[in-house]
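Hi R.,

As promised on Friday, here is the backbone we talked about, encoded as structure tokens. Could you run it through your design pipeline when you get a chance and send me back a sequence?
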């Protein structure tokens, strides 16, 4: 469906760098159409509030433009913009009652009224709103937030939800063209939040004005919005309808943030064929052969069958009833797949899974490094990628050293046994070599891909057991299918702890 309504807000290359060097908003561009419900969604600290504050006029951009109905509004103070804001903390006046809180802004307001003098000449006078006009406006706003009859109540006697309604009434009583809402339901309990979400949506419809909403809650964004803008680290990740964003996330961040997802590392192995969990699946996206990709599969899109009847077999290792469906985890090789289904498969049951090509979402991966899950052995070597490698375990604790028995001694003098400790392993693309001699390296595999990159080749060596890939750059020429061993220098293996070790 194409939306032809005019743009009310247009943001061009907006940046806000704070004095301490923090870039809260980093060159973002988007527009909001008249009457739209747009939500900024992202984790805490991603720049949502800063963006909203610049639209409201409470903060100034370092760079970029904000257009309102096509006009640059950077010079307009907040009270001259047809915009009102509702904050997470309601900031009501505790000593005023509900009516006075809502009427507060109206009482300060001056409007231009045109008169005619005796000679018929027109002149303009600035006047206060009359008591009657104010009362009518307050009444209308109270009705909108479902608080008729609450005029005389002291705000301190109201529940959180009612106070937030007063705050909303206070913002809409000015009849703004745009209402900004910064996590307005953040302080409410779950039940109240759910109710208020529906009410806000209803209010948006009745008022017919533009809402720009901010939340870190993906479910809230999905239920309320026409359009969602997903942000991370001050940068827009994706703009789209809730369905777009849910079904076609642009990258693994969006996929992960927007819902529960399985995210696998995969490789394109042919025309619309992707390999992950040791299996080749048909898919619908076109990617270059041998490209490294992230594969996203929603738990509800995995179909379970009896063993041997699907695309790949595995075993159920956990199952939890979630009210409507069961959430089960299936283990295939070393991978775990989360599955939602209304029919339970019991823990220990051998099953098979099917994923339709349409339900396999493939996203480009910025491949700059090999990453593995590993663990430290008794010998202080590290196992990963179906192999065992010498490594420097002292990097796990800066300043530590190994004693003669092989225990790690920290700078505080603590003695740590690293045996079986889980670690993240990273190896750069330039830090891997291969050898014809199968005993030379720590893992063995076949060359499955060789791509010429202008001045060097990028190779992938894949192991047999768990199909672990070693991706690296080399100037040497090899042949596909050569059987080789993978050599990595001790100091090129970067290790970090999966979790802090309890002592
Ligand atoms: P969000 O609303 O998405 O949680 P904010 O827009 O509040 O994020 O903040 C974005 C980033 O900017 C954060 O890293 C925050 O610490 C920083 N920040 C916000 N306001 C200021 C300020 N006045 N001075 C310096 N840094 C700030
Ligand atoms: Mg915020």
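Update: got your reply. Pasting your designed sequence below so it's all in one thread:
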């Amino acid at each position: 469906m194409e939306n032809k309504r005019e743009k009310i807000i247009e943001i061009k290359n907006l940046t806000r760098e704070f004095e301490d060097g923090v870039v809260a908003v980093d060159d973002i561009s988007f527009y909001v159409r008249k009457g739209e419900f747009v939500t900024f969604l992202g984790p805490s600290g991603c720049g949502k509030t800063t963006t909203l504050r610049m639209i409201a006029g409470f903060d100034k951009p370092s760079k970029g433009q904000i257009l309102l109905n096509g006009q640059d509004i950077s010079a307009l103070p907040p009270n001259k913009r047809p915009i009102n804001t509702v904050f997470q903390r309601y900031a009501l006046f505790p000593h005023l009652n509900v009516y006075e809180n809502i009427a507060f802004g109206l009482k300060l307001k001056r409007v231009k009224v045109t008169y005619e003098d005796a000679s018929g000449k027109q002149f303009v006078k600035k006047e206060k709103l009359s008591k009657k006009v104010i009362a009518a406006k307050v009444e209308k706003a109270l009705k909108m937030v479902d608080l008729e009859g609450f005029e005389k109540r002291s705000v301190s006697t109201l529940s959180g939800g009612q106070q937030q309604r007063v705050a909303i009434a206070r913002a809409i009583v000015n009849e703004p063209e745009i209402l900004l809402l910064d996590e307005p339901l953040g302080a409410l309990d779950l039940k109240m939040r759910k109710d208020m979400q529906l009410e806000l949506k209803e209010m948006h419809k009745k008022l017919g004005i533009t809402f720009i909403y901010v939340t870190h809650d993906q479910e809230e964004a999905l239920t309320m919005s026409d359009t969602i803008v997903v942000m991370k680290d001050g940068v827009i990740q994706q703009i789209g309808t809730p369905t777009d964003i849910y079904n076609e996330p642009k990258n693994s961040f969006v996929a992960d943030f927007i819902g529960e997802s399985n995210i696998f590392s995969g490789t394109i192995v042919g025309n619309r064929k992707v390999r992950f969990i040791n299996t080749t699946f048909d898919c619908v996206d076109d990617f270059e052969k041998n490209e490294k990709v992230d594969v996203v599969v929603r738990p509800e899109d995995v179909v379970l069958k009896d063993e041997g009847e699907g695309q790949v077999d595995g075993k159920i290792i956990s199952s939890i009833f979630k009210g409507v469906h069961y959430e089960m985890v299936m283990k295939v090789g070393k991978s775990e797949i989360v599955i939602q289904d209304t029919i339970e498969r019991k823990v220990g049951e051998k099953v098979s899974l099917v994923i339709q090509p349409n339900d396999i979402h493939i996203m480009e991966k910025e491949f700059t490094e090999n990453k593995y899950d590993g663990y430290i052995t008794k010998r202080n070597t590290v196992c990963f990628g179906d192999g065992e490698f010498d490594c420097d375990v002292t990097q796990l604790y800066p300043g530590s050293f190994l004693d003669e028995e092989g225990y790690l001694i920290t700078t505080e003098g603590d003695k740590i046994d690293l045996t079986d400790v889980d670690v993240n392993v990273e190896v750069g693309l330039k830090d891997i070599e291969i050898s014809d001699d199968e005993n030379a390296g720590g893992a063995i595999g076949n060359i499955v891909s060789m791509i010429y990159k202008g001045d060097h080749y990028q190779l992938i060596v894949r192991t047999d057991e768990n199909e672990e890939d070693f991706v690296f750059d080399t100037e040497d020429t090899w042949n596909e299918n050569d059987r080789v061993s993978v050599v990595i220098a001790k100091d090129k293996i970067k290790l970090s702890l999966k979790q802090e070790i309890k002592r």
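One thing I noticed while checking it: Residues 369-497 form a domain with the OB fold (Dihydrolipoamide Acetyltransferase, E2P) fold (CATH 2.40.50.140).

Thanks again,
M.
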